[in-house]
Amino acid sequence: MNNLIKLVFVLVIFPITLIAQASKQNYKYNIDLLHLSNDEVKVSFTPPTNNLKQGKFVIPKLIPGFYQAMNFGQYVSNLVATDKKGKKITTERLDQNSWIIHDLKHVNKISYQVADGWDSLEKDTHEAKSAGSTFIKDSVFVINYNSLVGYFEELKDIPYQITVTKNKDFYASSALDYKQKNKNTDIVRAKDYRQLVDSPVLYCVPDTTWLKIGHTEVLVSFYNKKERHYSKKIALEIENILKNQQAYLGGSLPVSKYAFLIYYESSNETGFMGDGLEHSQSTVCLYRSGSMNYLPNALNRVASHEFFHIITPLNIHSGEIQHYDFLNPSLSKHLWLYEGMTEYATIHMPIKQKMISLDDFEKSIEEKIKGMKEFDNKLSFTEISKNAMERQDQYMNFYQKGPLLGMCLDIRLRELSGGKTGTQDLMLQLMKKYGAGKYFNDDDLFDEITKMTYPEIRIFFKDFIEGTQPVPLKEYLTKVGFNYDEATGKVSLLSNPDSKQLSLRKAWIGQ
């Protein structure tokens, strides 16, 4: 009988001990959105249990999706480390984005303050806002955790628990699941730092609409200081796009939950300003204009492009992205894939799904050609990609020349397969091979795609993406019954296409 009691005692105590130990092996953060001081948010956290004499604490210099130094540590001040008795422990700031914390094994709490990354979406500034955060106490918090939360280089790949103190009327819109502890407190968990940074949150009085697209739940959350109950109108626009994307991607969307977080700032100025950043399961869209009439139209293009990023780089990416270094990142040479092919899908999907006319499609191609001519097109795309931080002057060409290369690749695949397969099929095949959690080697991708397709495709990559030969627009558009006037930049239908051209065009764009 005594042995049985002992056995029960062990069975009860052992799991409890495991839970207690597991809870110490995470970052426990507290973020106070209720008691702002000088427009700064108070942040504190308890590090994971460790035996380190010192640790290097990092706030990102750069995050995936941006290719210029953002230096988010610049918004952090008054960093203090203390032990269990409240005694200060020595810290050293190394640079804008990193600190040495001494005697880390005895640190009980680290606290600091964070200023917002932008106060307003001013038209005359060109600095990206979407990766920063804004704090307007009584109205809204657009939070990107790369601005507020850090990690120790010695303690990576560890879960996070974030406790948020907030206005009782505010709702957390995010792809992560926020649990309400009480009316002023939310708790959210992330499996690691990458997932946390990849999951922004919009805190405000809710104006939200949920959509169901196949098996995918889509949250549309909107904020404007004056306009309320506007998310439903936006959701109707987004729903049409996503249903067509679902069909374009073979009948299903490769994500179970997605959130569109839309911040709109009214202005007395004319014109329209927008900024956005894609994430694995969400998109942040920031807009400023004098009229909301621009908004649904602007969202059409942005929502489509950003949502297509669920294919790449979410499901198709290199080791450089899988093991991203937030302080000193090594960049991939495949921005032609991440941005170029994503933008190509954005202009190809509407014509393939019969959402736009041939005239509109021709104009889309012409716009890309015109945009491409503003850049140096004698440079290797893989080299620019690998050195994107140093070649910011050429970066935007991935959105201009990139989709034109995607178009030519699509036409070439259709030609070699007798119209049976194109880039739609290629991307789905790559997604099966390199799904979430997997990655390709940067130097191997072209050869891997060649194995999946045709030997001629390796020559295409060598000539036009690794190499510097001009995009063969006239040759390839002729293959599908279009004429390209190199002098004027105009694209139009051939007056007398032959049956082969008509058949290939039908396979390419469905008409």
TrEMBL record:
Positions of the Peptidase M61 N-terminal domain: 28-203
Residues in Peptidase M61 catalytic domain copies: 301-404
InterPro entries to which the protein is assigned, alphabetical: Peptidase_M4/M1_CTD_sf (IPR027268), Peptidase_M61_catalytic (IPR007963), Peptidase_M61_N (IPR040756)
UniProt feature coiled coil, ranges: none
Pfam family, one: Peptidase_M61_N
Top-level taxon: Bacteria
Protein name: Peptidase M61
